[in-house]
Write a structure and sequence with these properties.
By secondary structure, this protein is mainly alpha-helical. 46% of the residues lie in helices and 6% in strands.
């Protein structure tokens, strides 16, 4: 993604465009990628040529005031976003673990990459004034020379991580909160129609996880969180060239899936609750373990609890009941989604203790209110109030 950090001056023509304000071309590129638009898309919606949009992004030409206001509306970011340089973050970015790579997912992945950067920048704003939980995510590398994890190795690693976290052998009550207490910054990302399940990355020493805002099933979302924890633990050393190789990506995703199953459904306890290959028995187990029925069936296959014929029969029953896309208790009213809270509560604490005002935050996070809400979980009403409820965190 080639960008230009040159700045361009454009004349004042509206109350929120001040004389001497500088336009940063690279911010145009960021906002366009986040909006999942091509230069042609922007040109058509703004009413200029594609070449004009390209020249704005290269820093070769400055848009007229009316054109800039139209670009701002189309890309969904305020004028101030385009005149402020990108914020600082915790350090270098690791590989982003997207589930798929290719021409059909390029636009989506580029948008996710931008949102990942924005989340890291937003979190860094408060690093100097509030104490984030200490990062406590163990990271490992495979013992084999071929850089693959064996199935039994992953089982042992998942068990060791549970022990490291002080977990017993039973169900995990809230995996999102668990990761947040271990220093992971979690957010939900709304990219309508893109089927974003989840992705994760490291920014310097700080891990991040983005979840899909369109996934309504708590059980499936929890598996996504465990899957991304698997990437953070197993694959911090993996490079972009690995995940851009389709076969290698398939192996890496399988390793993260195996970790998720082993972490959520320990082999030392979960099998003791399996007493029949009848599908109805898994419904109550879903309520107890908060794991999708299909994931539990697959875990039974991994652990050899049932033979191939029994597993095939279970999947046939799932298809017959039309549970492949929606199972019992997938309704959030029956099993509520586990929502991220850490960054939201950090910001509320900072404002409540008058370390920063709401206006200070809006200045330091120059995104639209909608974008800030996606990154932090804050409601628009927060920016109209100086007295949010506190949270049990401490300030530096």
């Amino acid at each position: 993604m080639a960008t230009n950090d040159n700045v361009l001056h454009f004349p004042s023509a509206a109350p929120d465009i001040h004389r001497g304000r500088r336009l940063i071309p690279a911010r145009l590129v960021e906002a366009r990628l986040a909006a999942r638009l091509t230069q042609t898309d922007v040109a058509n919606q703004v009413g200029v040529s594609r070449q004009a949009v390209s020249s704005y992004e290269l820093g070769e030409k400055s848009p007229e005031p009316d054109t800039m206001l139209a670009i701002s509306r189309v890309l969904g970011q305020p004028i101030s976003f385009f005149t402020q340089p990108a914020g600082e973050s915790f350090g270098e970015y690791s590989t982003r673990f997207f589930r798929k790579f290719g021409a059909d997912t390029k636009r989506r992945n580029l948008a996710c990459e931008v949102y990942g950067k924005w989340l890291a920048q937003a979190a860094f704003v408060f690093d100097g004034v509030a104490n984030y939980p200490v990062v406590d995510i163990p990271t490992l590398e495979p013992k084999s020379e071929n850089e693959h994890y064996e199935a039994d190795d992953i089982e042992k690693i998942a068990e060791s991580v549970r022990t490291h976290f002080g977990l017993g052998l039973g169900p995990i009550s809230n995996i999102v909160r668990l990761l947040e207490t271990k220093g992971v910054i979690v957010a939900r990302l709304q990219l309508s129609g893109e089927q974003v399940e989840a992705f994760s990355f490291w920014n310097g020493p700080r891990p991040f996880v983005f979840l899909s805002s369109e996934k309504e099933s708590c059980a499936r979302a929890r598996f996504d969180v465990a899957h991304e924890l698997g990437h953070l633990v197993l694959h911090r050393w993996v490079g972009v060239e690995d995940i851009e190789d389709r076969n290698r990506l398939k192996e890496i995703e399988a390793e993260a899936n195996r970790f998720a199953g082993a972490f959520l459904l320990p082999r030392r306890s979960f099998p003791n609750e399996i007493y029949t290959p009848k599908l109805t028995a898994f419904v109550d187990l879903k309520l107890r373990w908060k794991v999708a029925i299909q994931a539990m069936v697959y875990r039974c296959k991994d652990l050899g609890i049932f033979d191939e014929l029994q597993i095939t029969n279970l999947y046939k029953q799932i298809s017959f009941k039309k549970w492949r896309k929606r199972e019992p208790f997938d309704n959030p009213k029956e099993m509520p989604l586990e929502e991220p809270l850490l960054l939201k509560k950090i910001i509320e604490l900072v404002v409540k203790n008058k370390v920063m005002s709401v206006d200070d935050i809006k200045e330091k996070l120059p995104f639209s209110i909608e974008t800030i809400g996606q990154l932090t979980g804050l409601e628009p009403a927060f920016f109209e109030s100086e007295e949010p409820e506190g949270f049990d965190l401490t300030l530096k």
